[in-house]
Amino acid sequence: MIKIKEIKAKSIITKSGLDVDYVINPYIGCMHGCIYCYARFMKRFTNHREPWGKFLDVKINAAELIPKNIKKYKNKSIMISSVTDPYQPAERKYKLMRGILKNLIPLQPDLCLITKSDLIVRDIDLLKKFKKRIAGCSLSLLDDSTRKEVEPLASTVERRIKAVRELKKAGISTFIFISPMFPELTDYKKIIAKTKGFVDEYWFENLNVRATNWGDIKKWLRNSHPNLLKKFQEIYFTKNDYWNQLEKEIEGYCQKQNLNFTIYFHHQKTQS
């Protein structure tokens, strides 16, 4: 059971430490319940006692908080979202993104939308009104049964791929964010082969293991992929160059394929 609460936020556009100027997060928490999600650190600031994936705060006044005709956002980059999914299941009811996008149109930021849901196609009509926009889906796995183990309430693999195809067909720049990359499970070459006809950019991020998510990841491996547990422990808790080597491999492959790509790998050793 997911605890859903409607709240009124004080602000909605936040300065970002990522590769964008600002971020918008219409929700606190996420219904997708991804076992690996790094955003669970947000619980330190929100005072939620429920497990990650079991609570959702809906910022019902989100659209009202978008300022009108503020030049400081013009030509600045805004990403939706960074610590939640803007098109998670609750969005079908609340339609926060419709209001947010409508109110962002006059500001004309350099807009980026990232999601694990095909619901994004609902808003193609609004996305087309931005001069600079890119939208896409994160995708780790092509096998949907494995995908469901780690992202239980996210859209299926095929629905996400179809959504990106529809975005491209509508004239919107597209990306596939191959993230998180699971050792021995994520086949980035197959993902690219299946999608390169309608994807403008590929982004890559390795599975970011932290103390807050390792327990759930380890439990999943023990239950579903026990043969991989030792491999994950070696990669994340011993000194090795696994991700450095994979990064070089991806770079070489993408250059050969003449792809536009960006790699966002985390190289720090995990502290158990």
Please name the defining characteristics of this protein.
globular, eight-stranded mixed sheet, TIM Barrel, 272 residues, 10 helices, three-stranded mixed sheet, alpha/beta
Summarize this entry quickly.
By secondary structure, the protein is of the alpha/beta class. Helices cover 32% and strands 19% of the residues. It has an eight-stranded mixed sheet with strand order 2-3-6-7-8-9-10-11, covered by helices on one side. It has a three-stranded mixed sheet with strand order 1-5-4, with no helix packed on it.
Give a description of the structure:
The chain has helices at residues 43-46, 91-94, 96-104, 124-127, 144-150, 157-169, 188-195, 211-224, 229-237, 242-256, and strands at residues 3-7, 13-15, 22-24, 27-29, 55-59, 77-80, 110-115, 133-138, 173-181, 201-206, 261-263. By secondary structure, the chain is an alpha/beta fold. 32% of the residues lie in helices and 19% in strands. It has one domain (3-263): TIM Barrel (Alpha-Beta Barrel).
